[in-house]
Amino acid sequence: MKEMSFDWIDFLQKLIFPPRCPVCSRVLGFVPECERCTPLIPRLLRRELVPLSLHTLSMLEQVYAPFVYQPPMKKPLLLAKYEARRDIMRFFAEYMAQGVREAGWPVDVIVPVPSHPASVRRRGHDTALLFAQALAEQLHLPVEDQALKKLYQTKEQHTLSEQARQSNLLGAFAVQAPQAVRGRRILLVDDVLTTGATLNECAKMLLGAGAECCYGATAVVTE
């Protein structure tokens, strides 16, 4: 009779570092899913694409965000953004990837929306890059994290008028590796979609450098 193998490494990892629910942060231990939050996901999940007409997204083909930036998804997004919680990023990336596949986007490379180096140093990590890497694992696509560069720090977009949003980002981004995007179908990735102006400005730069087209995916979208 064949003996059943036991994964001691996995057992010890869960014992010492028990997994938590990505939504409510409840310790799961050896239970694979949160009985409280898992049933809520189908109701919270957005199936439709982001309407381009409601955001400043004229340079993009289509945009998708699986969840709305409100409870219960607001807390996990903030934990991912400010504490670099990879488990939460993987959770969001799974649903971002599901939306990309269902939409049938013909993308072949992922480009994260760049942060200014000073912001990365202050936070200790690059949030959009980590989300891009998590999504790349799901979609089996390369990440070109040096394609775009943010040249200077900008004000928070949601605090500005529509006209001020455009001038706030004018000249903020530049393509520093045109050979990495020329002729390619880009999937731009960020954590939150608010006004859409940031994604749109990045897409404009990439298209100007020869990218064939740009799509966008974020973890959440504001209403």
UniProtKB/TrEMBL annotation:
Cross-referenced PANTHER family: DNA UTILIZATION PROTEIN YHGH
Pfam families reported for this sequence: Pribosyltran
InterPro entries: ComF/GntX_DNA_util-trans (IPR051910), PRTase-like (IPR029057), PRTase_dom (IPR000836)
Highest taxon of source: Bacteria
Alphabetical list of SUPFAM superfamilies matching this protein: PRTase-like
Protein's recorded name: ComF family protein
Boundaries of every Phosphoribosyltransferase domain copy: 127-213
Gene3D superfamilies to which the protein is assigned, alphabetical: 3.40.50.2020
Family indicated by similarity: Belongs to the ComF/GntX family.
